């Protein structure tokens, strides 16, 4: 909700969650209020702003990163939220050789070509399997 000074009223301005593919970076650094709002989006496929409820796009997919719980400023994800993710992959630090390989690939003079392989309808059909 955003306040319009000229109209002396609030209006809805939809944010980044209104998308098909949401990247939630460092999800476990978010405070409880943000976690709760994201859980509503993931579980109910809707967002409530003030007194209004808005359906999210279909498909609505979330890819999230999280930091180890040992790091300062991180929170454990609620079980209900963890259950909404299909898989969890733990990525460690690369070796020195792997890191050098990553750097050399990023220095390539040619930019990679982006090729469309799926559209939203195809993703929706796959979800039905």
UniProtKB/TrEMBL annotation:
One of its GO terms (molecular function) is ATP hydrolysis activity. Pfam families: AAA_3. Gene3D superfamilies: P-loop containing nucleotide triphosphate hydrolases. SUPFAM superfamilies: P-loop containing nucleoside triphosphate hydrolases. This is Uncharacterized protein. The lineage of its organism: Eukaryota, Metazoa, Ecdysozoa, Arthropoda, Crustacea.
């Amino acid at each position: 909700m955003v306040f319009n000074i000229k109209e002396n009223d609030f209006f809805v301005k939809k944010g980044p969650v209104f998308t098909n593919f949401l990247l939630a970076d460092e999800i476990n650094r978010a405070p409880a209020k943000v976690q709760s709002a994201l859980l509503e989006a993931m579980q109910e496929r809707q967002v409530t702003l003030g007194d209004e409820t808005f359906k999210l796009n279909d498909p609505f997919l979330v890819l999230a990163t999280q930091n180890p719980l040992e790091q300062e400023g991180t929170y454990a994800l609620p079980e209900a939220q963890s259950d909404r993710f299909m898989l969890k992959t733990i990525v460690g630090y690369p070796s020195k050789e792997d890191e050098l390989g990553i750097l050399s690939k990023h220095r390539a003079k040619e930019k990679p070509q982006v090729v469309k392989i799926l559209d939203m309808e195809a993703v929706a059909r796959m979800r039905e399997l």
